[in-house]
């Protein structure tokens, strides 16, 4: 079994076997003289997988937002007076929600890796612990990234359109030629768990080298294992045949993939974004694709989401667009719910969370 799978299994096993017992013990010890379910917890989405709900309901009285799409008004009403929240979905977690909850609120966990919809400064100012659910989605997102990289490099979208429009022109010998993954240089902007999981998968495609741009160098053993070298942003852009965005959205990364960046990339380069749409200036991406300044793009994230069906990006042949489904597998979403529930239980018990966001 791959090392990475062992880590994921280990994390889930830690959650399922060790953490519940820890949390239960802490709860029992602390609440001996209290009622069986001393804490109220809100689940902010009606479709949070049962795994997390089952864990929470052993110890807590649960309320849940039932509207779909979840209504902000229902959330703000039901959050009043709760001790903790399992925050499913990307509704803004901000002062408005925290004020509605009230001062007894002890902790929150999102069911996501990215927390760009959370007002982290406000949470910290109020000293409310925040958990999230990274790591367990690395494999699912990495699988999708490899799919996008190949789909964009090999022109899947354009090829399908040829069939739909009755333009099957295979009498051309050079029809729909794409980019080889074999012997390519793959550059990662951001090289954490997801980026490394992608690189590991791509090593099976006989790539030549991995480059990465991060603030801090990763450990040398992993660099060696993945044949990876840290370079600055300009070198990453200039040398990569495939550029994969796998970094968080922060003020420093917002819009960094703009016209200037695209002009430094190879004309044959393929851009993949499985991180956050706002890291890319989407107008500039449109221009770079339309003018063939870069070869193609495969994106699971965009700005805004949902992307309107009339968006000009969707008129292009050389972009494969998916509606933010990176972590959308049954097992992954269930694992994310499990991690979020353990974060909440630990936060309520005054213990460090399994996956603290800060
Ligand atoms: C995440 O967890 O951040 C994924 O993008 C899904 O929201």
Tell me about this structure:
- By secondary structure, this protein is an alpha/beta fold.
- The chain folds into two domains: about 5-135 and about 330-350, Rossmann fold, CATH 3.40.50; about 140-320, Rossmann fold (3-Layer(aba) Sandwich), CATH 3.40.50.720.
- Helix content is about 40%, strand content about 15%.
- The chain is built from 13 helices and twelve strands.
- The chain has helices at about 5-30, 50-60, 70-80, 95-100, 120-125, 140-155, 155-165, 195-200, 220-225, 235-240, 260-265, 280-290, 330-350, and strands at about 40-45, 60-65, 85, 105-110, 130, 185-190, 210-215, 230, 240-245, 270-275, 295-300, 320.
- The chain has a seven-stranded parallel sheet with strand order 8-7-6-9-10-11-12.
- Strand 3, helix 4 and strand 4 form a beta-alpha-beta unit.
- (2R)-2,3-dihydroxypropanoic acid binds near residues 113 and 326.
Low-pLDDT parts are 1-22
Could you give the distance between the termini?
Answer: 31 Å
| pLDDT averaged residue by residue | 92
- CATH-defined topology of the largest domain: Rossmann fold
Helix content: 25-40%
Q: Helical element count?
A: 13
Radius of gyration: 22 Å
**What form results from the Cα inertia axes?**
elongated
Bound molecules: (2R)-2,3-dihydroxypropanoic acid
CATH class of the largest domain: Alpha Beta
Secondary structure tally: strands: 12
Question: What kind of sheet is the major sheet?
Answer: 7 strands, parallel
Based on secondary structure, the structural category is alpha/beta
Q: How would you spell out the order of helices and strands? A: HEHEHEHEHEHHEHEHEHEHEHEEH
- Largest sheet: spatial strand order: 8-7-6-9-10-11-12
CATH architecture descriptor of the largest domain: 3-Layer(aba) Sandwich
How large a portion of the residues is in β-strands, by DSSP E?
Answer: 5-15%
CATH homologous superfamily assignment of the largest domain:
NAD(P)-binding Rossmann-like Domain
Taken together, the total number of domains comes to: 2
Family: Belongs to the D-isomer specific 2-hydroxyacid dehydrogenase family.
Keywords: Oxidoreductase, Signal
GO cellular component, one term: cytosol
InterPro entries: D-isomer_2-hydroxyacid_DH, D-isomer_2_OHA_DH_cat_dom, D-isomer_DH_CS, D-isomer_DH_NAD-bd, NAD(P)-bd_dom_sf
């Amino acid at each position: 079994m791959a090392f990475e799978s062992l880590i994921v299994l280990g994390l889930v096993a830690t959650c399922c076997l060790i953490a519940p017992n820890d949390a239960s013990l802490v709860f029992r010890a602390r609440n001996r003289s209290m009622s069986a379910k001393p804490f109220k917890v809100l689940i902010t989405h009606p479709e949070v997988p049962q795994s997390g709900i089952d864990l929470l309901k052993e110890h807590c009285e649960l309320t849940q937002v039932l509207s779909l799409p979840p209504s902000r008004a229902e959330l703000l009403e039901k959050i009043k007076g709760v001790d903790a929240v399992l925050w499913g979905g990307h509704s803004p977690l901000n002062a408005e929600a925290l004020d509605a909850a009230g001062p007894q609120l002890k902790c929150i966990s999102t069911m996501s890796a990215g927390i760009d919809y959370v007002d982290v400064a406000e949470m910290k100012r109020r000293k409310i612990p925040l958990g999230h659910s990274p790591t367990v989605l690395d494999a699912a997102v990495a699988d999708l990234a490899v799919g996008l990289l190949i789909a964009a490099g090999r022109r899947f979208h354009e090829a399908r359109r040829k069939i739909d429009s009755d333009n099957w022109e295979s009498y051309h010998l050079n029809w729909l030629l794409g980019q080889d993954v074999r012997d390519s240089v793959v550059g990662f902007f951001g090289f954490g768990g997801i980026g490394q999981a992608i690189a590991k998968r791509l090593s099976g495609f006989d790539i030549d080298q991995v480059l990465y741009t991060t603030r801090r160098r990763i450990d040398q053993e992993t660099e060696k294992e993945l044949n990876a070298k840290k370079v600055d942003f300009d070198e990453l852009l200039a040398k990569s045949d495939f550029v994969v965005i796998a970094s968080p959205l922060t003020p420093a990364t917002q819009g960094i993939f703009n016209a200037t960046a695209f002009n430094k990339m190879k004309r044959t380069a393929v851009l993949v974004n499985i991180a956050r749409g706002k890291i890319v200036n989407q107008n500039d991406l449109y221009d770079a694709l339309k003018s063939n300044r870069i070869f193609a793009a495969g994106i699971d994230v965009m700005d805004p989401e949902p992307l309107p069906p009339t968006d000009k990006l969707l008129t292009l042949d050389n972009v494969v667009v998916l509606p933010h489904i990176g972590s959308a597998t049954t097992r992954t979403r269930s694992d994310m719910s499990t991690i979020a529930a353990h974060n909440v239980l630990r936060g309520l018990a005054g213990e460090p969370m399994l996956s603290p966001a800060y």
